[in-house]
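Appendix C. Worked example: 6-aminohexanoate-dimer hydrolase
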Amino acid sequence: MRLSPWPAVLLSCSVALHSADAAAAAPPTQLQLPALEQAIARDELKQVRSVLLQVDGHVVYEGYFNGADADTLHDVRSASKSITALLVGAAIQQGALPGVQARVYDYFPEFTASHPVDSRLRATTLQDLLTMSSLWECDDENAFSVGHEERMYVSERWLPFALALPVKGFAPWMQRPQDSPHGRAFAYCTAGSFVLGAVLERATGQPLADYAAQVLEQPLGITRRQWDRSPEGIGMGGGGTRYRTRDLAALGQLVLDGGRWQSQQRVPRDYIAAMVSAQAQAADGSDYGYLWWGLKLEYRGQTCTV
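Step 2, the predicted output written as structure tokens:
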């Protein structure tokens, strides 16, 4: 589920606009918004349902299209992973998680007691899952991968499916971690993000949706949202959440402000900095942080990271 519809990139759009110097931010009249609206009306930009631009915390443009309105809950698809990353940071802030070096399998003793786990996999950390660089044989961009998300979806119990994944091998033409940028071999793995949600449930003692509401959504004034669950009832940290457009902008503002919201530090500032910094590199050259993409775009002769 790497590719997402337009609503799913609203988080990135909000952060990108805010990251520019406020003095240099173009006012709405200079952003060619009529041309954008006309392109959407002609269906040149596919599946666009909303566009919201925010500068210095103030909405300067808000438009809804193709049947959507301000109360529409948008399926943000894999941008759900980025919200799961924020929840990991919130759990670290609260002390429910010790840090990104916490070992994943330590949270599932009933599994390790009944299943042999390779010692290399037993060393898997939250950071490995956050950066899509674990040693699980899991690659959603390889239809033959054992851990491909579509195989997980048709299994009855997603958690054992993921925890039982084998160690990945590296063919001679594949980059090993030590030869890869940032020392991590990237492979897009939705199952890993699902397991992060399961870790959060174990660490906090709450369903993922309830914890998200308590530490993130309600403090930001988000009152309507939807989280999916696996067949065995575990919150889906890898996709399928639904938010209103303005609520996505609020999440973007939280990241822009270093995890702080209304004088309260909701997510550690250093965690946010690491989350949006390059921790791994995808095959197309895009940067990847903690479940946040750093996409390189060309605009008026300049390369921007969004």
